[in-house]
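User: C-alpha cells for this one?
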Amino acid sequence: MRTGSCVSTLPAHSDPVTGVDFNRDGTCIVSGSHDGLVRIWDTATSECLKTIYAEGNPPVSAVKFSPNGKYVLAGTLDSALRLWNIASDGKCSKTYTGHTNVRFCCFAAFNVANKENETIVAGSEDGIVRLYGMQDKQVKQELEGHKGAVLAVDAGKHTEFIATGGMVEDKTVRFWAPGVL
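Assistant:
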C-alpha cells in the first residue's frame, strides 16, 4: 500500500475541525470548526490570511468556497448558512435560514449550472433539501424524499442535477432534477 506524506500541519482551531475546502486554483484552503471560527489559509506559506466568525460565535458545521473563489459559505449549528465575501472587511454578505442544523454537520453546495437561477443547496436535519435563491435568500424549492437527516449534498458543476445522501433512517443517495425555479 502506498502512503502519502504530510507536507504541512496548520494549528487551525481549538475545537474539532468540521470542514475544509480548496479554492478553485488551490492557492487557499478554508477551514471551519466547532470553535466558531472560519479561517482562510495560504497553501504555499501555511499563513492564516483571514479569520471570520458570526455574531454569537455558533459552531461551524461545514465550509465551502464559491466557484469563483470570492466567497465562503459556512453552515453553522444555529440553522443558518452564511455567505462571506472574503475580500471584504469580514462582514457577512447574506444569511440563509429555513433548514434545521443544530446537531450534525449538514453540508451545502453552490448550484450554478443555470446562470439565471443560481441557488444554494442545503441539507437539513428535518430530511428536506432546500434550494435558496443565491441573491434573494428565499427558499425556491424543497426536495422531499429522505427519511431523517440529509447531511451530504452536492450540485453538478455543468448540470443542474443535485445529489443528496440520507443518514441512518434511509441510507440512500438520491439524484434530483430540480424543477424550473
